[in-house]
């Protein structure tokens, strides 16, 4: 089938005059072969080759003409080869049957070509629609990241500074109240503690919204901060482990942020749906590729979520596809769920990987 499709594509590239000349030449060649094989051989089926060429590359009207030429060549070559009929009506009947057969085949080929063209148009439209959808999804993710980055900067640079100034003002107020032995001094000091807690929460939120570029050491430091933040916020054990080979590993910003978001979503699912108490984030280099694995001891995912029907799983899988990575989630023995994302050598930054492995 592939050879036939390739032959059809080569035919379609030829010009109409060339295809027309080729069709007429093929009628002559087939007619010669019909004559050489004798009238006893069932040879008229080979005239379908020039007929097919005429339909596909020139048009139906020319194909009808080629059909008539084919019938004429078939009858003349057989007559020269010695074929004779007892009645002229029998000869006319055979010619009419063969000609009608060719016309039916021309009609079927025309219909097939129309259907083939329709399928190609629908396929092209579907391909363009998928490309456009993927482009819009990519722009949506990029827009979301930009907004999160902007909000993270605002929280870190503006709100944190404002809260810091508020805490400082509260400290001054507490000192003044303490110097005057007012009982409200304790309340002022407690207010300062609450503001300082708000500062810590705001910084943690800022890092979660914009984690990688805020940290000097990139994604490794971002994962360490994520693990520490999860441990502190949810009072569970969340650890980050990395292979020594990843100590000098550097990824581009897009790969880093997508890996980080995948880890965030996997941890969120483990806590929210899996009720996990122990979570491990592991980043390592395997066979010239980067592997990110998030394991937890939760109850696992339901069949619907494990089948990819959850929004979070679809987003993680899509983020992995954005950086050319594979994504997998599996339930392991001993009540362990593992989410794995691997970057292939073609998409990972191979120079840094090789440098890290050395």
Record keyword descriptors for this entry.
about 350 residues, alpha+beta, Heat Shock Protein 90, 2 domains, 11 helices, about 70% helix
How are the elements arranged and paired?
Blueprint: H1 2-13, H2 16-37, H3 48-57, H4 60-81, H5 88-179, H6 185-209, H7 219-234, E1 237-242, H8 253-272, E2 278-286, E3 289-296, H9 303-306, H10 311-322, E4 325-332, E5 336-343, H11 350-357
Parallel strand pairs: 1-2
Antiparallel strand pairs: 2-3, 3-5, 4-5
Secondary-structure element series: HHHHHHHEHEEHHEEH
Which structural class fits the helix and strand makeup?
alpha+beta
> Reading side by side through the largest sheet, how are the strands ordered?
1-2-3-5-4
Mean pLDDT across all amino acids: 82
Q: Cα-atom Rg, whole angstroms? A: 38 Å
Q: What is the straight-line distance between the termini? A: 49 Å
Tell how many strands the DSSP assignment holds: 5
Q: Regarding CATH, which class of the largest domain?
A: Alpha Beta
Q: Which strand-content bin applies to the residues?
A: 5-15%
Total domains, how many?
2
Q: Any idea what the CATH architecture of the largest domain is? A: 2-Layer Sandwich
The largest sheet, given as strand count, sense and whether it forms a barrel, is:
5 strands, mixed
Topology-level CATH name of the largest domain: Heat Shock Protein 90
**What would the principal axes of the Cα set say about the shape?**
rod-shaped
- Give me the CATH superfamily of the largest domain: Histidine kinase-like ATPase, C-terminal domain
Number of helical elements? 11
The helical percent reads 55-70%
Low-pLDDT parts are: 350-358
């Amino acid at each position: 089938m592939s050879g036939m499709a390739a032959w059809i594509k080569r035919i379609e590239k030829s010009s109409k005059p060339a295809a027309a000349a080729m069709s007429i030449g093929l009628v002559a060649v087939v007619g010669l072969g019909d004559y050489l094989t004798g009238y006893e051989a069932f040879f008229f089926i080979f005239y379908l080759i020039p007929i097919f060429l005429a339909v596909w590359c020139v048009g139906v009207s020319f194909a009808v003409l080629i059909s008539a030429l084919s019938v004429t060549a078939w009858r003349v070559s057989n007559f020269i080869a010695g074929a004779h009929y007892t009645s002229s009506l029998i000869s006319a009947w055979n010619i009419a049957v063969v000609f009608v057969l060719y016309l039916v085949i021309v009609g079927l080929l025309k219909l097939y070509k129309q259907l083939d063209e329709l399928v190609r148009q629908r396929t092209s439209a579907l391909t363009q629609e998928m490309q456009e959808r993927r482009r819009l999804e990519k722009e949506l993710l990029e827009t979301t990241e930009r907004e999160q980055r902007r909000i993270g900067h605002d929280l870190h640079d503006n709100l944190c500074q404002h809260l810091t100034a508020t805490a400082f003002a509260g400290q001054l107020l507490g000192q003044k109240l303490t110097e005057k032995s007012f009982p409200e001094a304790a309340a002022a000091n407690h207010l300062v503690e609450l503001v300082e807690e708000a500062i810590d929460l705001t910084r943690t939120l800022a890092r979660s919204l914009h984690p990688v570029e805020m940290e000097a050491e990139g994604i490794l430091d971002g994962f360490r901060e994520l693990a520490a933040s999860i441990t502190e916020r949810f009072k569970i054990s969340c650890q980050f482990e990395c292979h020594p080979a990843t100590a000098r590993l550097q990824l581009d910003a897009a790969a880093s942020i997508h890996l980080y978001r995948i880890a965030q979503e996997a941890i969120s699912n483990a806590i929210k749906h899996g009720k996990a108490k122990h979570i491990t984030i592991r980043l390592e280099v395997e066979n010239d590729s980067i592997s990110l694995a998030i394991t937890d001891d939760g109850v696992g995912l339901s069949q619907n979520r494990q089948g990819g029907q959850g929004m979070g799983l679809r987003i993680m899988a899509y983020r992995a596809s954005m950086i050319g990575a594979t994504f997998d989630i599996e339930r392991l023995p001993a009540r362990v769920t593992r989410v794995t994302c691997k970057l292939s050598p073609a998409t990972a930054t191979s120079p840094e990987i090789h440098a890290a492995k050395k």
